[in-house]
Amino acid sequence: MSTLTSDHFATLEQQGIELPSWAFGNSGTRFRVFPTAGTPRDPFEKIADAAEVNRHTALAPSVALHIPWDKVDDYAVLRRHAEDLGVALGTINSNTFQDEDYKFGALTHHDERIRRKAIDHHLECVDIMDATGSRDLKIWLAEGSNYPGQNDMRARQDRLQDSLQQIYARLSGEQRLVLEYKFFEPSFYHTDVPDWGTSYAQVAALGDRALVCLDTGHHAPGTNIEFIVMQLLRLGKLGSFDFNSRFYADDDLIVGAADPFQLFRIILEVIRGGGLNNPEVAFMLDQCHNIEDKIPGQIRSVLNVQEMTARALLVDRAALDAAQSANDVLAANAVLMDAFYTDVRPQLAQWRESRGLPADPMAAYAASGYQDRIAADRVGGTQAGWGA
Ligand code: PSV
Ligand code: MN
Q: Which of 239, 258, 255, 256 is nearest to 247 (CA)?
């Protein structure tokens, strides 16, 4: 049975996972959005909830914003509010999927007025990054077509590159652009950025500060995601993760819930490729909590990432190398499985306590009374959700 060492704990102590502001708002499927008592009404309340996750875990030092959902009059005030609560404002996500004008595309649109509008939205996002101190602009595009012949796919790639160049040119200093891919939805015939190869080709043509964002829910069933992780790290182009779980499509469920072994394998490749606790590779969640409580949902998520990181750190690299060199297939596989099957939870609980954190953050949150307080306090107003 493997045991976590002080070196492992030193590595785990550095881990930070960015939370999505939208995880704290109401969400649902196209069938129903279920409201929850205490749901934030504005970005200030979303950040307060995110800070609560960090308070119980010390794992979530920053919060990603989505524009226009998280628009405020004064971003300096929002930034101070976050900092007062012990968290930072993180990635700025653009949104070109909820405006009437973008029905047939945004950054790829053949209508120059609409494409200009979409580019300008991204330039506004960079203005916001300047005010929030955010490093990354994350772009996910809901663009594509539903029917063969509907669009000139080639011309759209060219317009996309031109649009991205204009956005990239606006970045300054340490700022970066990360381009997320997704194989389908909302378009079903073709998607303009469907896979890591397309994202890579688009960002490689921009420059060093343009990278790929890998959302774990955005692949066809059976895809070997850890291979993509390996390849992007090898190419120096893995900018960030959107972590979540999927059973069927872009389910946005809790990371590590559907397939903990897949999360373990992904993190193993992150470690192998030098991406763990590497500021160049941002760990973020991109989840929605439709039926479960949102703050505990986020606590569970960051704990799952921590737990699988701990298990991946336990892989005996020397034994693995030896088994691989000897073509000992079963021994090599056994090295991985030994680490994966190690229950690290008791050790992690003890370690948390030694750092003044709750041994069981889920229980500590439940006992904290925070949920009852926000349910009592946040009365009136409009609860945040998709589009608000
Ligand atoms: C698209 O499905 C996506 O993964 C993108 O990251 C969006 O910004 C996010 O979900 C919205 O929930
Ligand atoms: Mn995503």
A: 258
